[in-house]
Design goal:
Blueprint lengths: L4 H9 L2 H10 L9 H16 L3 E24 L3 E3 L5 E3 L6 E9 L5 H6 L8 E5 L12 H10 L4 E5 L23 E4 L1 H13 L2 E22 L6 E7 L9 H18 L9 E7 L7 H8 L6 E7 L8 E4 L4 H13 L4 E4 L9 H4 L5 E6 L21 H18 L11 H7 L2 H9 L10
Parallel strand pairs: 4-5, 5-6, 6-7, 9-10, 9-11, 11-14, 12-13
Antiparallel strand pairs: 1-2, 1-8, 3-7, 4-8, 8-10, 12-14
């Protein structure tokens, strides 16, 4: 173990991390590019300073901002009904303002095959898809892909229905780096979606109306350091922004709180690090990973030994690590969890979801680190229900110990984390994820590379 027993005991008895998380959720909305995100960043900066990290600072960068107004879904036939409250319907960030009326066409789970099967029905229609991805599909299909497919097939509006019950309409970015998107888009609860699906079988006409603003804005990253002042660094990261409809407790207040808590543990005098650890919380993850891309573009990537990104890491005490094909990262996490008699789930798929992608696409070893949950899909994430009461401070403490030990090992001279070239990374990406990236205008490679 790189962490001395005193540091482990400190982690298990301290309320520091939980207090930071509580301060973050009490900010309220931390929507990218808005005042709440900056207030959240200030909470993190102050926490870094209290943790004993040096050089805590906030860095600004430009983003395409999005502000939510009111939205509605009006069913005209076969039975009139108006949904205009946030508990039933939410605009999806990145979509344009506008109003459109059409037949409701249920495209099921929104797979590519389902869109092709309904291609003749979608022109001029309101396309509705589930947030679920069926088990027989070999990868998760992002809402953005479903949205672009709907627009490409001629739909005039997009309805994204939650597959989990509880009257929780989901939100989530659809525009990404091609904002604003082409058609109005809303998320609806499972209950509203099931009713619409039933009506669609009879013949249903509906109007989707979205009021929102797409305007330039400024977002913020927060950064500090612990350990020796080396050129090479291990990055421990998370995103501080959250969707404006809930506290963003697990997605991703907990990740930001964990960065501060792990930084505090690594800053202890009895913890020896061979390599500098950069603590970074990104802004604007939820609308296109803008903060992570800004960091990657302004960092000397040859000096980044590896990245450990925390996102959704407080739903249990079982770490879930996506290694993005960097086996050395998985080996360290396996050794840590074995030594701590802790549970671990790993996946080596190269996936473009999460802030680590800004580094992975450049061949920098980077892991997506979360915790395993029994909930399907995002669970409470991206809904009104992502609140502090769903989390447990004991989970946060245990995860902090595991991550702190892993980062300390990554920072050791004897641990090597080889980079890939951009060409090697491009060639290693699964064709399905290449398809997703191209659909969203996010494919980062020149085909001549």
């Amino acid at each position: 173990m790189r962490l001395p027993n005193a540091a482990v005991g400190d982690a298990q008895t301290s309320g520091f991390g939980w207090d930071v998380l509580t301060d973050l959720v009490d900010v309220g909305s931390r929507m990218a590019g808005q005042e709440g995100e900056r207030r959240g960043a200030e909470v993190v900066r102050d926490a870094f300073e209290r943790a004993g990290a040096r050089g805590a600072r906030i860095e600004e960068f430009d983003i395409p901002g999005w502000w939510r107004g009111s939205s509605s879904l009006t069913v005209h036939e076969p039975h009139e009904r108006v949904h205009d409250g946030r508990q039933d319907v939410l605009a999806l960030p990145g979509c344009p303002a506008g109003e459109a009326t059409g037949r409701v066409v249920d495209v099921g789970d929104g797979t590519y095959e389902e869109f092709e099967a309904r291609a003749d029905d979608l022109d001029g229609a309101v396309a509705m898809v589930s947030s679920d991805t069926p088990e027989e599909v070999d990868r998760w299909i992002h809402r953005m892909e479903k949205y672009v497919n709907a627009a490409d097939h001629g739909a005039v509006a997009f309805v994204f229905r939650n597959h989990l019950d509880g009257s929780l309409p989901p939100t989530g970015e659809v525009g990404y780096h091609e904002r604003p998107g082409p058609i109005p888009a809303v998320g609806v609860s499972r209950e509203v979606g099931e009713r619409l699906a039933r009506y669609a079988e009879e013949g249903c006409e509906a109007t989707v109306a979205v009021d929102c603003r797409n305007e330039p804005a400024t977002s913020v990253n927060v950064e500090a350091e612990v350990g020796p002042d080396t050129d090479e660094a291990v990055l421990l990261t998370a995103h501080v922004d959250a969707h404006d409809i809930a506290d963003g407790a697990n997605d991703n207040g907990a990740g930001s709180a964990l960065v501060a808590e792990v930084g505090r543990l690594l800053a202890r005098e009895d913890v020896e690090l061979d390599t500098r650890v950069r603590l970074v919380t990104f802004g604007s993850e939820e609308i296109g990973l803008w903060g992570a891309h800004h960091c990657a573009e302004t960092s000397a990537l040859d000096d980044v030994k590896c990245v450990v990104n925390l996102d959704g890491a407080c739903s249990s005490r079982t770490l879930r690590v996506g290694t993005n094909g960097f086996e050395e990262l998985g080996a360290v996490f396996r050794a840590v969890t074995n030594d701590l008699d802790a549970s671990l789930s790993t996946d080596d798929t190269i996936a473009p979801h999460g802030d680590q992608w800004a580094f992975v696409q450049e061949g920098v070893p980077a892991a997506m680190t979360s915790t395993a949950s029994t909930q399907s899909g995002r669970g409470w994430g991206h809904t009104h229900a992502d609140t502090l009461d769903k989390l447990d401070s004991r989970d946060l403490r245990d995860v902090a110990v595991q991550v702190a030990e892993a980062v300390a090992r990554f920072a050791a001279d004897e641990v090597e984390t080889p980079h890939m070239s951009r060409t090697e990374m491009r060639d290693a990406i699964d064709a399905g994820y290449e398809q997703e990236l191209r659909m969203g205008g996010r494919w980062p490679y020149d085909d001549a590379e």
